[in-house]
Write a structure and sequence with these properties.
By secondary structure, the protein is of the alpha+beta class. It has one domain (2-157): Alpha-Beta Plaits (2-Layer Sandwich), CATH 3.30.70.560. The protein has 4 helices and 8 strands. Strands 1, 2, 3, 4, 5 and 8 form a 6-stranded antiparallel β-sheet that branches. Strands 6-7 form a two-stranded antiparallel sheet. The mean pLDDT is 95. The chain binds 7,8-dihydro-7,7-dimethyl-6-hydroxypterin (ROI).
Length: 160
């Protein structure tokens, strides 16, 4: 199954966290990393009293179920120092979200796929567009159309 993972970090050297996450995704069982976007710098969505984020999107081809994949992503988050904090939308060392899992729509206690926020978040749409320009969502919406409707809000590619 082709699946897309959104990567986000704004703590503990975010560029390093994002790069390390991509290395960890490469090593997942029964999974191949097909592609990953550039790293992007983005203004925080939610509380503004936190550092800017580094965001990226990776494309996987996996034989894991969506829940198995979620378990693996949570292991990576924990291994990179993720803590469960009370504060909603607060800073995090690493966030790995399954934004798409094939053409499936999944709604259960642990997963909502497509990711509920992806359609309006510039830091998901534009990195995804970079590696999947012709993508169509399960509901038939073209990714390019969503991106065209979404302000970049200062989002820039990190060149280094
Ligand atoms: N804001 C940005 N720019 N990037 C993120 O990855 C991100 N992740 C979050 C919240 C706190 C909503 N804000 C974010 O979880």
């Amino acid at each position: 199954m082709i699946s897309y993972i959104a990567i986000g970090s704004n703590q503990a050297t975010p560029i390093k966290q994002a790069r390390q996450a991509i290395v960890a995704l490469k090593a997942l069982p029964r999974t191949q990393l097909i592609n990953s976007s550039s790293l992007y710098s983005s203004a925080p969505m939610g509380p503004q009293d936190q550092p800017d984020y580094v965001n990226a999107v990776a494309q996987l081809d996996t034989q894991l179920s969506a829940l198995q994949l979620l378990d693996e992503l949570q292991k990576i988050e924990l291994s990179q120092g993720r803590e469960r904090k009370a504060k909603r939308w607060g800073p995090r060392t690493l966030d790995l979200d399954i934004i798409l899992y094939g053409n499936e729509e999944i709604n259960n206690a642990r997963l909502t796929i497509p990711h509920y926020g992806m359609k309006v978040r510039e830091f998901v749409l534009y990195p995804l567009l970079e590696i999947a320009e012709n993508l169509v969502l399960p509901d038939g919406t073209a990714l390019s159309k969503l991106a065209a409707q979404c302000d970049k809000n200062g989002l820039i590619i990190i060149n280094d």
